[in-house]
Amino acid sequence: MTDPSAPGDAPAAAAPRKRRTTGSLSQRMIGIAAVWIVVLLLGGGVALDRVLSGAITRNFDDSLDYVLTAMVASAEIGPAGEVVFNRALGDQRFLEPGSGLYWQVSGAGYEHFPSRSLWDRRLDVGSPQSDAEIHVYDSNQFKDEKLRIVQRDVKLPGSPVSWRFQVAQSRDGLDEQIGTLRRTLVRSFLLLGLGLIVMAALQTLYGLWPLRKVREAIALMRSGEASRVVARMPVEVTPMVEELNELLAHNEKQAEEARRHAGNLAHALKTPLTVIMNAATARTPDLAETVVREATTMRRQVDHHLARARAVGRRGSAHSRAEAWASLQAVERAVARLYPHVRLDIAGRKDLAVHVERQDLDEMLGNLVENAAKYGGGSVFVTVQAEAGYVEFLIEDDGRGIPEEGRERLFNRGVRLDTSKPGTGLGLAIVRDVAEIYEGTVGLEESEDLGGLLVRLRLPAASPVDPSNADSVR
User: Fold this and answer.
1) Which residue from 162, 163, 168 is spatially nearest to 121, judged by alpha carbons?
2) CA angle, 314 then 315 then 320, to 5°
3) Selection from 182, 242, 234 nearest residue 212 by Cα
4) Is the pTM of this model over 0.90?
5) What pLDDT, in 10s, does the model give residues 402-431?
6) Any idea what the Cα angle at residue 264 is, between residues 226 and 222, rounded to 5°?
7) Residue 87: left (phi > 0), alpha (psi -120 to 50), or beta?
8) For the segment 281-291, what is each residue's pLDDT rounded down to a tens digit?
9) Torsion sign across C-alpha atoms 334, 340, 341, 344
10) Which of 42-56, 161-175, 288-302, 346-360 has the lowest mean pLDDT?
């Protein structure tokens, strides 16, 4: 019996997945070039064939026309009213039967006057012409020979009869010349087309070769032998390589920040856990109070690092955008419910937006406005304004303020100057960390209008701002 757990019965899902592609760029480019080359050469070949074949045919017809003109020029009316030539035509082929070159003179009521080369054959006369122009046409009247015929109707002096002069020549020589021309054209254009396609293939392979170098560089990075694409690239590929290197640097920065945050969190939790373990091991009477106190400390640290982690994760979004006025109104409503006795006023421009996720903006403004309401004297004033590519939030309160030497210390985790009110001491630390993640700043100053603390939060503007369009609203 076969063991169902045998290695040979491994599920088919273990097989490597086939990569889904949209085809080869090289094949596309070579195929497009080949089709376009074939179309151009085919069109050019047909046009050139018509031009050259027409030139050969015209030259052939001109030679027959020359003979026809010589016949008309040397023709006279004889004693019996027939046509005679006052001088012989110079081409010897007219005297050789079946030579392929013939002439004939025909008139109504008279016997045909043919060249000796016709022997016992005669050219078809056809119907009379309405003009005296030269007419050229092909004829199959001889079963074994295709003819090219030039004819003209002429009235000679002294004769009332309209005489038809005809000169005919076998098309074999003409067709052979045209056939030779076409074979030459086909061979030449085939060779030219093959050469152009090979050139297009070489050009495509050489032009796309830098992409293979990028692939090799990525393979080296995956194997740990390199950290960036450092090879020199053409101008068209360089922007892509630069963006790739920037992406790698961004990912490395995020990974390093994640490792640092994990290390900081582990270090912050280590001490409270050690205190709890020691108290539990010693069975101290205040074990419950110790667990609650240290658990509160651990929760404070976890909240702080979670806030930083969320901000770092959302920072890479190129489309992060938050409306400043809408966020302020939401914070105003929340703080008004928590501190109904505090008067909160907001002013500034309503059309400003920051390059920050809305959740992070709400968290920063919420911490700052809540602190102002909690530690102030009952009045909080918030102003939003544009300043050189940034959006500034000024949060002022009418409290006692903070001495200049103690302001920087407030940004440390867990530091609280007023321990009589509930809190974790992480609000300002979280605001500073999140603002710095978005390349912003936060600082503490003294409010000139209210006399308390002024917090200045600067965040990158999501779009160009024009300070002249300020619209203050109370």
Assistant:
1) 168
2) 80
3) 234
4) no
5) 777 767 766 665 444 444 444 433 467 778
6) 15
7) beta
8) 888 888 888 88
9) positive
10) 288-302
